[in-house]
Every structure is written in C-alpha cells, then in structure tokens.
Amino acid sequence: MFALISRIVFRSALTLLLLAACVFFGLHLTGDPARIMLGDGADEIALASFRMQWGLDRPLWEQFIIYVGKALTLDMGTSYQSSLPVKEVFLQALGPTMDLMIPTAIVTLLIGIPTGVIAALHRDRPLDRGIMVLSVFSYSVPNFFMGVLLLLVFSIWLGWLPSYGNTSLLNYIMPVITMATSEAAIFSRYARSAMIESMRLPCVRAARMRGLPRQRVIWLHALPNAMLSILTILGFFLGTLVAGAVITENVFSWPGVGKLLVQSVAARDIPVVQMIVLATGASLIFANLLMDILALVVNPRLRKEN
Questions:
Q1: What percent of the chain has pLDDT over 90?
Q2: b/e for 210-233, b at 16 or more Cβ within 10 A?
Q3: I want to staple 258 with a disulfide (CB 3.0 to 4.6 A). Which of 107, 195, 245, 303 is the partner?
C-alpha cells in the first residue's frame, strides 16, 4: 500500500511541475511583460528599470528556477497591477469563490447521483428516458447561455433576484443553478451507467437469489459498488469547480477567482494569472490524488491489480 501511494504521489508531483513549466513559459511566450505593462510608448530606460525591479532581466531558465523555489514556499511574487503579494490578492478572491463552490457541489451531488440511480432502477422505462433526455439537454446548454437566460427571466423580467454581487442569499440562487445544472447532468449519466453495471455483479445477483428484499440489495450491495466507480469522476469534479467559475462569476459579477482571472489577463498581470492557473491545476491534481488513494483504500481489487 505504501509503495502504491508513493507512486501516485510522485506522479502527481511530476504533473504539477510540468504544469508549472507550461504556465510559466507559455505566459512568457506571449510577449515582453515590461513592454506589455508599460505600453509601446515607453522608452528603454523605463523598460530596463521595470525589468530590473521585477527580475525580468535575468535569463528565462533562471527566472523559472527562482519561480519554482518561491512557489514551494507559497511565495508567488508581487502583482504588477496592485503591487500587493500575489498570494494575498488570490486569497481575497478565493473566499467568495469557495462560498459559491460549496453550495454548488452540494446541489450537484444531491441531484445528480440520486437521479442517475433512479434512472438505472427504471431502465428503459419512460422515467429513465425522461431523466436522460433532461440530462443531455442540461449538459448541452453552455454556462454563459444559462446564466444570461436566468438573468433575463428572474432579474430583468420578473425582478425577483439580484443580478450581481454576493451580498445576500438571493445572490447565490442563479449562479448555483447555472453551475450545478451541467455538472449534475454529468453525474446523473455516470451514476446510471455505474448502477447498471453494479446490478450485474455476481455479489448482487447472489443477494437477489438468496431472496433478500430489493431495497436491501440496492442499498447494501449495488449502490456501494456503484459509488466506487463514481469516485473516479468526483476527483475531476472537485478540481474543475474553480475553473468552471470563470464564466459564471463574470456573468453575475461575482468577486471571485474567475473574475480576478479575466481582469488580470486584461491588465497583463502575469504573476496573478500564473497563480490562478497553477492553483486551479493543483486543485485538480490534488483532488484526483485523494480520489486515487481513497479508491485504493476502499477497493482491495485495485491493490491486487497494481
């Protein structure tokens, strides 16, 4: 078990290092940060002073080594725009984003998994077909369209809900619905497939042959096995919540990480953009790491296969 977990952790750390390299060199390939920040009208003296101030006069490989070394201590540099530590700027925006992500995750799981299980238990019946049609439709509607549609109906036409900000509980309704709709559709379809496969397992068939009540077979034998499969996408879901907030937060003017990312890209604030992209990727890697370890702990077959 220790060797398996060590291998998974090493693979995750290597992936994170490759991500940091892609983010760093990719953003620097977009142009000279000094020229971008100061504009084409800046003279060479101002450009040289800016590069010296932010360490941009050093070779790119040396900048990357310094960047990785500071990142290990959570020192992501200073924002070009606000002159504040990047970590401080990011944490200020992370709070509102987490306030939005937590209820979104709860709503997604409470809707997606039960509807998928219900569809599997009524396979090929009208209820199953109706749930799957609704899931495909919900997944197909882009977040920006869903958000704008909700704004048009509930804020502009009916005037029931506020259109921007996060000052009250009413502000949470439309952003949560916007994000949870497509995510719940994914869980619904995946939970249906996992539950159908679980109902075919020998242990489930044996339980049914022994004459156990149907509800007992479902709750104690089929559903736990189906949840093992759902764990694989739960890691991706938790890791992509922050990434999925980029569009939603800008539609509803939510003061979170997504809105900060768009503002930082527009202002060419490279340290902040690096921090957000790296943190988003790290959250995805870390979530999948936890799900892989949890799957090894709860599923002995994976340990034997590895």
A1: 1
A2: eeeeeeebbeebbbebbbbbbbeb
A3: 245
pLDDT surpasses 60 at 302:
no
**β partners of residue 78:** 85
Is residue 119 within 8 A of residue 193, CB to CB? The reply is: no
Provide the sign of the torsion angle of the four alpha carbons 246, 250, 252, 253, taken in this order: positive
Sign of CA pseudo-dihedral 58, 64, 70, 74? positive
Q: What's residue 230's pLDDT?
A: 79
Find all residues with CB under 8 Å of 121, minimum gap 6, and list them: 195, 218
* pLDDT for the residue numbered 38: 67
Give residue 201's identity as a one-letter amino acid code: L
Q: Which residues contact 197 (CB under 8 A, 6 or more apart)?
A: 226, 229
* pTM (2 d.p.): 0.76
β-pair partners for 85: 78
How many CB atoms within 10 Å of residue 2?
A: 6
Distance of CA 149 to the CA centre of its chain: 23
DSSP state of 134: H
The b/e string for 84-97 (b: 16+ C-beta within 10 A; e otherwise) is ebbbebbeebbebb
What is the sign of the dihedral through the CA atoms of 96, 97, 103 and 106?
negative
